[in-house]
Design brief:
By secondary structure, the chain is mainly β. The protein has one helix and 17 strands.
Length: about 190
């Protein structure tokens, strides 16, 4: 037995990405330049309009500990950190704040120590940006076959024990502990 949902109520025009926050679903609405919050029954809880601040979002991630929402604009090479407690943008990360120009940053992940991991996909590197000190450094650099080298990193996933880095052009997933130490990797290119 299912409840029928009135999709006209969802009011999405060109949704481009989503993430979850506890039992809430957060969706970026590109047409309206806003984040819409839905509960588990897909009822709208809240909308945050960012028309004057952000025009495009290609990736979005949420950190429960800091209550930050990361919004990545790959076209403009910018990452916006939205503080959900204060309901405003707290950081804008771009070429002025990162050494070496970012080229189409993809997914981001905030660790518990307020360090932001950035998949700088077309530079074939992964960056660490400290949200407290506003300093950055390169964590993983270009290389083949994994083992702490990446080719077009595009996505991260965080578990209680590990950080998973999806290394697209090396055809594998690299696994690190929360102290950023390499543990092992899954996959690799197979020649058939």
């Amino acid at each position: 037995e299912y409840d029928l949902i009135d999709f006209a109520e969802l009011c999405l025009r060109n949704p481009t990405c989503l993430t979850s926050k506890n039992e809430l679903l957060l969706i970026w609405d590109e047409f309206n330049h806003q984040i819409t919050f839905y509960n588990k029954d897909l009822q709208i809880i809240k909308k945050i309009g960012l028309q004057d601040q952000i025009s495009s979002v290609s990736f979005m991630s949420y950190n429960e500990n800091s209550n930050y929402l990361c919004l990545t604009d790959s076209k403009k090479n910018k990452i916006y950190i939205y503080d959900l407690n204060r309901e405003k943008i707290s950081h804008i990360i771009d070429s002025k704040t990162i050494e070496g120009r970012m080229k189409s940053p993809a997914n981001t992940l905030i660790l518990g120590n307020n360090k932001l991991i950035i998949a700088d996909q077309f530079n074939n590197r992964v960056l660490i940006y400290n949200l407290d000190s506003n300093e950055s450094y390169i964590w993983l650099t270009f290389g083949r076959n994994g083992n702490e080298k990446v080719r077009k990193p595009i996505h991260f996933c965080l578990s209680k024990r590990f950080i998973y880095v999806f290394d697209y052009h090396n055809y594998l997933i690299q696994v690190f502990d929360h102290n950023l130490n390499f543990q092992y990797q899954i996959g690799g290119k197979v020649h058939l």
